[in-house]
Amino acid sequence: MSIPVTVLSGFLGSGKTTLLLRLLEETARRGLRPGVLMNELGRLDVDGSILEAHSRASVQKLLDGCVCCSKKGELLGALQTLVEQQPDLILIELTGVANPEEIAETITEPELLGHVRLRQVITVLDAEHVLDYNSIFAADKQLVRTLRRQIEVADLLVLNKTDLAPSAKLGKIESTLRKYNERSRIVRTTHSRLEWDPLFAESEGEPAALRQPEPVAAPSGFRASLLGSLALGRQKPPRSTHDAEASRPGNGPVRSGGRLTDRLPASPQQRSYSRIQTVSLPWNGSARASRAKVEGFLRSREDQLLRAKGYMRFPGDSAVYLMQYAGKRTVWERVRYEGQSYVVLIGIDLDGELLAEQWNRTFD
Ligand SMILES: Nc1nc2c(ncn2[C@@H]2O[C@H](COP(=O)(O)OP(=O)(O)OP(=O)(O)O)[C@@H](O)[C@H]2O)c(=O)[nH]1
C-alpha cells in the first residue's frame, strides 16, 4: 500500500508551519505515525526547531535552498529515507516560493512509484496580504507565476489569517481565487484550524480536487496578474537565486484545475524562481538590544522584508524568544530553546553585506 503524501504550499508567512503543527497533533490523536519533510530557504532551521519542540515525528530537512531547484536532487533521497521508515502518511512543507508541481514530479520518479502517492496539495494564503502580492512582485514575473501555480494546483485552498482581514476583503479574495481554481474547496481559517476529517478520509477516495476536471479556459487578465490590480512599478531587473525557466516554450498558463500528477511534463517546465533572498545573522543580545529595537529595525525595512524569524535572548531577561515577522507584523513567543541565537531575514533583493553591517551597527 502506497504512503499518502500531503503537500503544504503557500507564500512566506501564510501559516504553513502552523498548519503542519496542527496536522501533527491530529495525526497523533488518530494514532497515525507521520513522516515529515521540511524545506527552508535559509541555512538555519527555525521551523525544524519549532517542530521538534512540538512533535516527535520523524523529520527530514532540506535547508538553504528550494526543493524546486537547488535542493531538487536531495528531495528524492529525503523521501526515500522517509519511505524506508514506513510512516502512515508523509507531510511535506514547502518553502514559500516553491511550485508544488515539482514535488509531484519527484513523487512519480521510478524509485518512488508504488511507494508513495500524492493525496493532496494544500495551499495556505494570508488573507491580509494575498491581494497585494501582484503589485509587490510586479517585476518578478517568475515569482508571480509560482504563486499563481500554488493556487491553481491546490486541492484545498486555506484562506488563513482571517482575523486580520475584514469580511468584505475575504469575499473579494475568494472570488479572485475562483478565477484561478474553480474546483477546489476554499476554507477560511485562523491559525490554520481546519476541519480534519476530509483531510484524512481515505474511504472517500481521491479528494475531489485530484480528479480530472473539465478543461477550463484561463480567465481574461489571467496572464497579466496574479491577484488584485495595483502596480507599484518596481522595475529592477530580476536578480535570481533560482533558475529562470518559465520563458521556455510550453510554459504558458495551464488551465486551472486538474489532477496534478496527470499534468506533469516529462521534464521540469517551471522553476520556482525569484528575487527573494535569505540572510542569516547571528544574534549576540548585547546591552543595547531590545525587542522594540528589533521591531524598529524590521519595520524600517518593510518594503524589502517579507519574512524574518529567529531565536533571540535579551539582556536582563532569562527567556528565549521565538521572533516571527510575517505580513509586517512581529510576534514574540517565549520558547524552550537551548541553541545559539540567530535571525533569518527573507526579502526582495536583500543586500546581505549591507544588512549585516546595519544589523551589527544597531545591535552590537
Ligand atoms: N494573526 C494571525 N497570525 C497567524 C495566523 N496563522 C499563523 N499566524 C502567525 O503568522 C506567523 C507565520 O506563521 P507560519 O505558520 O510560521 O507561516 P509559514 O507559512 O510556515 O512561514 P514560512 O515557513 O516562513 O513560509 C507566525 O507568527 C504565526 O503564529 C492567523 O490565522 N492569524
TrEMBL record:
It catalyses: GTP + H2O = GDP + phosphate + H(+). Residues 276-363 form the CobW C-terminal domain. It comes from the Bacteria. Keywords: Chaperone, Hydrolase, Nucleotide-binding. InterPro entries: CobW-likC_sf, CobW-like_C, CobW/HypB/UreG_nucleotide-bd, P-loop_NTPase, Zinc-reg_GTPase_activator. Residues 233-272 are annotated as: Disordered. Belongs to the SIMIBI class G3E GTPase family. ZNG1 subfamily. This is CobW family GTP-binding protein. It comes from Paenibacillus hodogayensis.
